[in-house]
Specification:
The complex is a heterodimer of chains A (116) and B (111). With 116 residues, chain A is an all-beta fold. Chain A is 0% helix and 53% strand. By secondary structure, chain B is mainly beta. Chain B is 0% helix and 47% strand. Classes of the chains: A mainly beta (116), B mainly beta (111).
């Protein structure tokens, strides 16, 4: 149980294009999902907290207009990197908290983004 | 959330117990200790969490000192697949709270 998936697992795009990453909780409903970013040899850094049916809460320094988050259902949150640039190349990881339990975060496998 | 301190790296022989320490001297009374691990190029995997009593599950055991200022994650019979970065995180057990990841301990299991 508590399986979280991400799609795509990796993506290569040209500079200036937008990329959408999906995060799904497969066997539970999640009112809250989190988006993290991880650069090589660094730890995970929280980007934003996504609550179903409401606007995401962004961490300091994360541009909300560049990293669009939509959490339209209890099993799906999406992160769109708009006008991607090479410095946006990173490992993007989501996590979801089961609505029933409400505490433990379960992580997806991550999406590796390379912007050329 | 309170800060944690972990050794940057550790080695352990395959088949032996791996004991990963974590210091959290500023932990508050309502904060839990969580352990996650991240195998290379994967998302973090939840291992275990506890408040003040020792906890055990199918993956590991968590030993928390009586003063709660430190804890130890024990992998009883380490395998090569346990090679990963292990993160010790303290957070309030209240709703869907964010996790603040430190640098963790890079555990290498040697054959």
């Amino acid at each position: 149980g508590a399986v979280v998936s991400q799609h795509p697992s990796w993506v290569i795009c040209k500079s200036g294009t937008s990329v959408k990453i999906e995060c799904r909780s497969l066997d539970f409903q999640a009112t809250t999902m989190f988006w993290y970013r991880q650069f090589p040899k660094q730890s995970l850094m929280l980007m934003a907290t996504s609550n179903e049916g409401s606007k995401a809460t962004y961490e300091q320094g994360v541009e909300k207009d560049k990293f669009l988050i939509n959490h339209a259902s209890l099993t799906l949150s999406t992160l769109t990197v708009t006008s991607a640039h090479p410095e946006d190349s990173s490992f993007y990881i989501c996590s979801a908290v089961p609505a029933v339990e409400g505490e433990t975060q379960y992580f997806g496998p991550g999406t590796r983004l390379l912007v050329l | 959330d309170a800060k944690t301190t972990q050794p940057p790296s550790m080695d352990c022989a395959e088949g032996r117990a791996a004991n990963l320490p974590c210091n959290h001297s500023t932990i508050s009374g309502n904060e839990y200790v969580y352990w996650y691990r991240q195998i290379h190029s994967q998302g973090p995997q939840y291992i275990i969490h506890g408040l003040k009593n020792n906890e055990t599950n199918e993956m590991a055991s968590l030993i928390i000192t009586e003063d709660r200022k430190s804890s130890t994650l024990i992998l009883p019979h380490a395998t090569l697949r346990d090679t990963a970065v292990y993160y010790c995180i303290v957070r309030v057990f209240q709703g869907a709270q964010k996790l603040v990841f430190g640098q963790g301990t890079r555990l290498t299991i040697n054959p």
